[in-house]
Amino acid sequence: MLNVENLCHTYNLNEMPKNVLNKVSFELKNNEILGILGTSGSGCPPRNHWFAVR
Questions:
Q1: What is the pLDDT of residues 14-51, one digit of tens each?
Q2: What is the pTM of this model?
Q3: Neighbours of 20 (CB within 10 A)
Q4: Of 27, 49, 46, 23, which Cα lies nearest the Cα of 36?
Q5: CA angle at 34 for the pair 46 and 53, rounded to the nearest 5°
C-alpha cells in the first residue's frame, strides 16, 4: 500500500515559483495505479507522474 499525504510540488519558471500540486493526498492499494498529468499549455514543463503499487 502507498499512502501520500499533503504532497506539494513547485516549479521555478522564469525565476518565479509555480505551485502545481498543493496538499494532494491519496492512497493506493495493491494492484492500483494512479497517474497525475499536467495540462498542455499550463505553463509547466511537460511532466507526468505515475504511481503503482504491486
A1: 888 888 788 989 898 998 888 766 665 555 555 555 55
A2: 0.55
A3: 19
A4: 49
A5: 125
Evaluated on CA atoms 49, 23, 52, 36, the torsion sign reads negative
Q: In angstroms, how far is the first alpha carbon of the chain from the final one? A: 8
Q: Select the more confidently predicted residue: 12 or 31.
A: 31
CA dihedral 35, 1, 28, 18 (to 10 degrees): -50
Of 14, 12, 9, 54, which is closest to residue 36 (Cα–Cα)?
A: 9
Q: How many angstroms from the chain centroid is the CA of residue 26? A: 11
